[in-house]
Structure formats: C-alpha cells, structure tokens
Write a structure and sequence with these properties.
Helix content: 10-25%
Largest sheet: 7 strands, antiparallel
Number of domains: 1
Radius of gyration: 17 Å
Strand order of the largest sheet: 1-2-13-12-14-10-11
Strand content: 35-45%
Structural class: mainly beta
Distance between the termini: 27 Å
Oligomer: single chain
Length: about 240
C-alpha cells in the first residue's frame, strides 16, 4: 500500500486489500511471493489421494479439492517413492518421523527445520527446537536447510555463491499472523534467497522447501514445470 493509500485508509477506514500474490524484486532477481493472513486461511499438506495413490502433480491435487485453492506448492523433499525424507504430518496423522541425522544434500545442510501448524497457527521452527517443543501438529513437513533462524541467515550460506537453482520456500512473520510462500523466477543462491525472507518479507524464520523441481500455482499464477513427479504438497484455501 503506497503512502497516499495509507493516508486514505487511516482517514476513512476504507482500505484496499493487498494482492496476495505479486512479484518481488530482490538483489537483481524476481520472485513470485504469495502472502496470507493466517487467520483467514487454512494451510494443509497433501501426498496421496483417497485411494492411497500419490498425487504426483499439483494439477491433480487441485482437481481433487472441494473448493478452488488460493495457492498450491511443492512442500518438501522426498524419496524416489514420493514419501517424505523427514517429518511429515497430514490431517494430524504422522506418516514420517522427524529426522535428526547427518547426511548429504540440501536436506542435511544443518540446521534444517519444520513448517507446521496447529489450531490455525503456523510456524517455521528449527529441527532441534521443534524436537524440544514436541507438538502434535495438524500438519508438518520437514525440509532443509533453514533459510533464516531467529532473524539470522543460515551460518553456511555464502554471499556470491555460484550454486544457483530455482528455489522455493516458506516464512512466517514474527507475530505469526502472516505466512509467505516464495519461488524464484530464475536460478538464485541460498544466501540471496534467505535475504529475501529476512529483509524484504521480514520473516525471522524461513525454510527452504526444494529446488529445481519447484512449482507454484495460484490464482493468476502458474510457475514451474510438471516435468517431474512431486511428493509432499502444500495447499492454502479460504477458512470457512
């Protein structure tokens, strides 16, 4: 909302709602960002349909939902059989346990973290902290690395790194009232992606969801390709 609109809003009480999805430019790269007030939406995870078959594609998940989603996005790293690499909870049912082990690849670029929700509130929490809290979430998906941890970038991110990929992730505002989903238009490094959440979106905690296979569908927006099957997925719908 620009300055004039802000004054008009304060004076009249008539305030235009900002577009949920928009393009944000940051450090020479463009990102699709969809932001939602958590009190107004439901966030859920999805992996298989009622016949226990993996959705594989966002378009198939979209067709299965009873109402048009506000947004769909791939929701974390997965094995060859499309099961989650780390913690995965759907509709309160834990399908995969929390992973605290070392390993190779982005998931194990520690610290990693969990995107989760309970009772209508959503969180991004570093894995060790999540383990100490030990909630019983309505949904959860573990991925890695953490992009921002309590306002600080992941300690292993390198400014100017030449590790460039299309990336997507999620962050939550300090008061938990807003959740931000973002996907780069082109290839970016972890450092720049992290600063998008920290500096532009003001999310003190943010989590990398995946790269290369990233896909995002929203009203008026369809980014990424369906060249590869997806495992865990995230939906955002209007709260009844």
């Amino acid at each position: 909302m620009n300055f004039i609109m802000s004054i008009f809003c304060a004076w009249t009480g008539i305030c235009a709602e900002p577009e949920a999805c928009r393009t944000v430019s940051h450090l020479g790269a463009d990102y699709s960002v969809c932001s939602y007030q958590t009190a107004d939406v439901m966030v859920r995870t999805h992996r298989v349909d009622e016949n226990d078959r993996p959705y594989r594609r966002l378009s198939r998940l979209e067709r299965s939902l009873t109402e048009p989603p506000l947004m769909l996005m791939n929701g974390g790293m997965y094995q060859d059989d499309l099961t989650a690499v780390g913690l995965y909870v759907e509709n309160g049912v834990k399908q995969q346990h929390l992973s605290t082990k070392d390993g190779w690849g982005n998931f194990h670029l520690l610290p990693n973290g969990v995107f989760w929700g309970k009772g209508g509130k959503v969180h991004v929490t570093e894995t060790g902290a999540y383990q100490r809290i030990n909630p019983a979430p309505d949904f959860a998906t573990q991925s890695g690395p953490m992009l921002v941890i309590e306002g600080k970038l992941h300690p292993r991110f390198i400014p100017g790194s030449d590790s460039l990929k299309i990336r997507n992730g999620v962050g939550v505002s300090a008061d938990g009232s807003t959740v931000h989903f973002a996907m780069s238009h082109g290839r970016v490094n972890f450092h720049d992606f992290g600063t998008l959440f920290r500096d532009e979106l003001e999310a003190p905690n943010a989590l990398f969801l995946d790269g290369t296979v990233s896909e995002m569908r929203a009203q008026g927006l369809n980014r990424g390709s369906s060249w590869r099957y997806l495992g865990p997925m995230i939906s955002v719908t209007k709260r009844p």
